[in-house]
Amino acid sequence: MTLLYLSLTLPFALSNVPRVKTKILLVGIDGLNLKTALDSGRAPVLALLRKNGYFSELTVDAPTYSGPGWSTLLTGSTHAQHNVTDNTFVGHALLHRPDLLSRAFYQDQSTKTFAAAGWLPIVDPMGLGPIIHERREQQLAYQHRVIVRDGDTYGYEKIDSIIAEASCYAMNDFGPDVSFVYFCDADEAAHVFSAVGVEYVNAIERVDRHLARLKSLIETRVKELGEKWLLVVTTDHGHIDEGGHGGDSPQEKASFVIAVGLGRENPHWAPSIAPEDLTPLLLAERA
């Protein structure tokens, strides 16, 4: 009788065990020429992720500015849909094109989200945009946390370090389910010094060290807490050799996505995807 009871109740009990959902960290590295980074030998973490993870080249639409690029990647919308045509954000439709973090919360309202960036239009509600919705109600309920620093004023080498430090603390303390962390040191170096000089490679190395810290934190959480993570890296545009972007040359339109499963397998996405596919694919990993 006892065995019969167990055989009848065990499947029901197992069905009530909560599924461990994948946590997602999307790292945005502004203005990164991936080939330069990999060929330099100064980005070992990025190279390891490229070797071991899912990889697809992306081709972003012109104009190849950060405003349109990040709007497409973070909302899963085309330029025509979000109507961000440059970095002024004049006439944008972002209110009607919710971002990855917002959509993850709407998909499952137990989701905790986190964003950190030194370029204000991505996260600062007081300025242009922002691309990532403020969601003040969720911030007050401790379900959404935002770190904002001003890289244009204080320089991205300094601000990226602060963003990395704050992100590691917040991700460990807050335990977000879906996060976006943004670095702009490499893009700034390309604009100031060119995209072929030692300054650009030095900046790439600094960003790679920030990436190493985030990866190490995730690996610790996987080991100690049994979590499942998807670490994803992308960029909004490339640079011409002289430093600069906005046009429609292959270098400026070159982007990529790398996605590595930690505590889980790599995603099984199509070999080639479009920039506007990234957000829907990430949301599907959480479904």
Structure description:
- By secondary structure, the protein is of the alpha/beta class.
- It has a single domain, classed as Alkaline Phosphatase, subunit A (3-Layer(aba) Sandwich).
- It is built from 14 helices and seven strands.
- The protein has a seven-stranded mixed beta sheet, sandwiched between helices.
- It is globular, with a radius of gyration of 20 Å.
Structural class: alpha/beta
- The parts where pLDDT drops under 50 for at least 5 residues are 1-10
How many structural domains in the coordinates? 1
Content of β-strand: 15-25%
How large is the radius of gyration? 20 Å
Structure summary, number of beta strands: 7
Write the layout of secondary structure elements.
Elements: H1 2-15, E1 22-29, H2 34-40, H3 44-52, E2 54-59, H4 66-75, H5 79-82, H6 100-107, E3 113-117, H7 120-123, H8 136-140, E4 144-148, H9 151-154, H10 156-174, E5 178-183, H11 185-193, H12 198-225, E6 228-234, H13 250-253, E7 254-262, H14 278-286
Parallel strand pairs: 1-5, 1-6, 3-4, 3-5
Antiparallel strand pairs: 2-7, 6-7
